[in-house]
Amino acid sequence: MTPPDNDPRTEPFDLDYAPAPQSTAVVDIADEYGLFIDGDFVESRSGRTFATTNPATEEHLADVAEGSKDDVDRAVAAARNAYEGHWGALSGRERGKYMFRIARQIQERARQFAVLETIDGGKPIRESRDVDIPLSAAWFFYYAGWADKLEYAFPGRRVAPHGVAGQIIPWNFPLMMAAWKLAPALATGNTVVLKPAETTPLTALLLADVIRDVGLPPGVVNIVTGAGATGAALVDHTGIDKLAFTGSTEVGKRIQRATSGRRLPLTLELGGKAAHIVFDDSAVDQAVEGIVNGIYFNQGHVCCAGSRLLVQESVAEEFTLRLKRRMAVLRLGDPLDKNTDVGAINSAEQLRRITDMVDAGVAEGADLHQPDCDLPERGYWYPPTVFTGVQQSHSVARDEIFGPVLTVQTFRTPQEAVDKANNTPYGLSAGIWTEKGSRILWMAEQLRAGVVWANTYNQFDPASPFGGYKESGFGREGGLHGLAPYLRAAGRVA
Amino acid sequence: MAGHMPVDKTYKLFIGGAFPRSESGRTFQVRSADGGLLANVSRASRKDLREAVRAARSAQAGWSSRTAYNRGQILYRVAEVMESRRAEFATALRDTGRPARSARREVDASIDRWVWYAGWADKVHHVLGSVNPVAGPYFNFTVPEPTGVVVIAAPDEPPLMGLLSRLAPAIVSGNTAIVLTGGAASLVAVSLAEVLATSDVPAGVVNVLTCDKAEVLPWALSHLDVNLVDLTGAPDDLGDEVVAGAAENVKRIVGGREGSDPVEASPYVIGDFLEMKTIWHPIGR
Hints:
With 494 residues, chain A is of the alpha/beta class. Chain A is built from 15 helices and 20 strands.
């Protein structure tokens, strides 16, 4: 069904907004940042630093200490010391109180965190302000309450912390990933060495400030900034008792390989290629919003992004049309503008990767569509993109792109939707849009994925376990299940 | 009175509900404490493992889509058939040097263990699942699901109790399994396979490979259609590189950690073989 020519939906009217910039006066970025070890900011033993830039402007923001093997050693020793000293002896109630303080401080300094997150990572201020930062505070608040209730979490088992946890987090939700990692680790009585991502270290270092302000004992949380080599030093360190990693499947496999001989307790939250399935009886406008949110949220830099649209054949043509129309009014640009929908790509390297993968899709014969939109001259940008005419064999339908790129395939029956959705080595998430309750539950049962969103997408909550099947990793973060990876004898559970 | 000349059993593999010999034609011998020959046991090859994985994968969807109640009933039926073969299991344990009383005790405890796990089929969800109070108008819940195809390195000791304590929690939730067992423990494993073959357990849900575990485990760890490997009964000197093979498809590795109890009975052991799926739906008028 094609809308008639005079349908207002076919003629996007002028949607220019006046600029609505978020003030940056709330943040004060230092020229240089040290490593946060044993309660103090210190220089790297190697003296090496790396630059962090604003991906929306390519402006140099700060020089950050690059953690060497020596520095990781120091951080692990500090964490060990804290674990065997004060922190290990502290009651759950007292641990929880430190965490409640951290949660409150994040709330109180929320705008500062949000602006810094957007400047350092390129995501729209609307998202950092309304999603990343509130969820980060909520994560600490939720797990703070668990700290003195662990005996009720796994009845019949005597649980105990592992000791020193190494944690490596990605650049797509920098503060939120730190919160997802730190909160359950601290609630369960572990101490931590955290390595933030190379391109987005600043909010983790602001969190270090908070950690100091709330009086958390030195060494309980250590933050060692750096790139892959710093992460590898942490992975290979024999002084850690537990490792948690969020990032690509490729690196996750390397980490599993490197640590399997030691049988190091491991949590892996890796890549995805989620199917987002739309049936002919779905609430179409809501479904379009859901698909758009599923793939263009955070520029598609989301491991659970709904990157494969599977739409029922009978409505595919109209649905795709509506989708393209919605894409045409997405606002791409200054991430600090409160009206921006699509911000900057996180780094030049990621932009290159997205560009290469989209080029491969075109070369393989898929049909590319990108709305007309002006990309800013400076910075790293990629327009919202959709591929139609996609075959299962096309690389764009198989490989994780981690960018604002959606593929469209069709299906006729629910079984065919399931078969296509599950035809991937990944299994992190999936989405379903239909008004039929029994079909939702049947589909949810059939989909091999750790998180299934029905008639919604990209929802996160500290009470809700998150994590993958198959090559999307193992272990859960969030909820009761998110405690298990940080406790000995809690079982795999996840 | 003319004596009855015993008809000795051929100890074969159990793959997809059938009892083939190893395609390799290899066997190993199990001898009694006094050196007498008890059996020439089939020694599984890499190809046998592949066949077993294929059988387990084919059976997995059907087994996991049975109702939990039905799986519980089928497992209970296994215990019934085991009960009728108590003497055979006890003899197999005794033949390899176990005192009679100890052998009988292990058989009885093993049957009880199996009944215990059968009862968990429709209860483990209560204990390991959850309804999650998210901060928004959504109904959100977490359900356990089977991981898929699992390979179990069965412990050598205690031969029957060790095997059942890993196999029952693996299959009760809907996984399908390939059991690797070796040495003298093979005898009870083959008897168990014969029980399973006559107990309404669908073909392929359990496959038993008598083998040299150290030889077969590296192939299992690197097999791309295996989702999980239980190292409870793995040899200590398996080698880092061998375990690292599991990373190729991000396999789950359970069991065999220092201090872990190979015969623990717990819903958390069932949990070792599960995935957790979380489902969101909006609440609205």
